[in-house]
Structure formats: structure tokens, C-alpha cells
Amino acid sequence: IDFYTSFSEYQSTFENIEALGVGNGMYLAATNSGFNPGNCTFTRVFMDIYRANGKGFYFYTPDTGGQFNITKFQQCEAIDTSGTSTTSIGMHFRGSTTSYFRTKNILVDSTNLEGFTTAIQFDYSVSNRVSLNYVDVGANGTYVKFDSNSYNNQVEILSSYVAVSRTVTMVDDANTNENQPNILKGIECYTDTGSTVNATLTRATKLEYMGITGVGTIASTLSSRSNNQNKLVLTRPDGTVRKLTISDLDVVTVSST
Q1: 246, 199, 188: which is closest to 222 by C-alpha?
Q2: For the chain, what percentages of helix, strand and coil (3-state, to nearest 5) are there?
Q3: Which residue, 8, 41, 70, 78, shows the most beta carbons closer than 10 Å to its own?
């Protein structure tokens, strides 16, 4: 059994929705090329995904539909309880692959994603803002994944955990647009004994205020970009201050002006 929305999400509010033991959770899509669903809010939604390789929340802009956008999720949760998943996704943002329409402008706040292979995944999706309250992933799982066509997204994880002897990827980012980077920030994560935290980054990836601690092994690429280390503050002779953001591979020439 899949739990699907079969109603128009436009200018609506949905509260206190719970589905237990379902194959997939909430699926929201733009299916009319002349209409963009959105302007809606979901509060206190719980999805228990019992079938292996299911999805908790799925936001989709298909190739032949309109654009799914302007939606808010708050105090929601999805959990993969199958115990056998290898490709499950907690929250999937997916836009059109053949048109300029992308899944965009979705705000997620105070939400938990637990036990999925990938906690949150962006494909052809731009300008979304996500603040997760708690996240953990399964064996060989990924916390946040961006494809090469997803940019200007921001993800915050206020609390997360890597289990004993588990190998995970904190962020897998394929975007190379340095003018519109994906940003992972405010990450607090405890790594348990024997665990390993990896990362796949590009020059465009921005990591801010990373707090990955514990007794596990943490990839040096995560450590080297922590705490805004790519910020350069210049003070001019007249006392005014100019702030620059640079990558660790850039060469900066500074003059007195």
C-alpha cells in the first residue's frame, strides 16, 4: 500500500496526517502544464515506510506538468522501518529533466528523517531551504545528495548520529556552479566507535559551521571546509572592511584599494 495525495495541494493546509506500514509515503506532483500547485502547508505529518526501498516524501515536477513549488513542511517525520532497504529515500526533490521547470522554493522545518539509505536527495531542484531536526541513515547511506542540475539549495541538520562501525557519506554534491552553490550548514553529528564519515564535494560546495564530532573517522574534506574557513576579511587603509568568500584553490591579489 502506498499513501498518495489525491487532491489539489493549491492554497491548502493539511495537519495531523499519519500513515503506518505503507510502501511509500506522501507523493506531491505537478500534473497540469497550465497550473503550478503550491501555496500550501503541511504540519505534523508522520510516514512509517515498511516496504524496502520506499520514499517518505516525494516532491515531483514531471516533464509534462507544471512546476511544483512554494510549499512548507513543518514538524514532519518519515522513518524507514523495513530493515532491508538499499535505495530508500527519506525526502526526494525531483524536477523536470526536459523543460526549465524545476522543483523549487520548498521550505522544510523541524523535520526528522530516520533509517533511509539516502535521507534527502535533490535532482533537477533549485532554491529549496531545508532545516532537519534529526537524521540518521542506514548502512552505506548518504545524508544529503545533490545531482549536477541542483543548485542554490540549503540544508541544515541540527542533530544526527552515525552508528557503531557504520560507513556513511555526509554530503554528495555534483553541482559545479560556483555562483549558485549548494550549502550544507549547521551540521551537528556524533560519530560512534568504528564509524566513518565520507564526502564527495566540488569547488562549488559550501560547508558552514560543521560540528561533526565523536570517535569515528571524519573525511578531511569535511574538516577543511568547516566553520567558514573560506572567509577572508580585508581592512582598507581608511579602516573600512571588505569581506570576501574564496575557495582554498583561489589566488587572491590584494591592493591598497
Answers
A1: 199
A2: 5, 50, 45
A3: 78
* Residue 173 neighbours by CB under 8 Å, 6+ apart: 144, 145, 146, 182, 184, 200, 201, 202, 204, 205
pLDDT of residue 253: 52
Q: What is the pTM of this model?
A: 0.84
Residue at grid coordinates 573525511: 219
Q: What is the pLDDT of residues 1-49, one digit of tens each?
A: 555 554 455 678 899 999 999 999 998 887 776 766 677 899 999 999 9
Tens of pLDDT, residues 132-186: 999 999 999 999 999 999 999 999 999 999 999 999 999 999 999 999 999 999 9
- Please state, as a whole number, how many other Cβ atoms lie within 10 Å of the Cβ of residue 209: 13
pLDDT of residue 249: 44
Instruction: Evaluate if residue 121 carries a pLDDT over 50.
Output: yes
If you search the block for the grid coordinates 559545479, which residue do you land on?
176
Beta bridge partners of 196: 167, 217
Contacts (Cβ under 8 Å, ≥6 apart) of 64? 33
Burial of 249 (0-12, 13-18, 19+ CB in 10 A): exposed
Helix (H) or strand (E) holding 224: helix 220-224
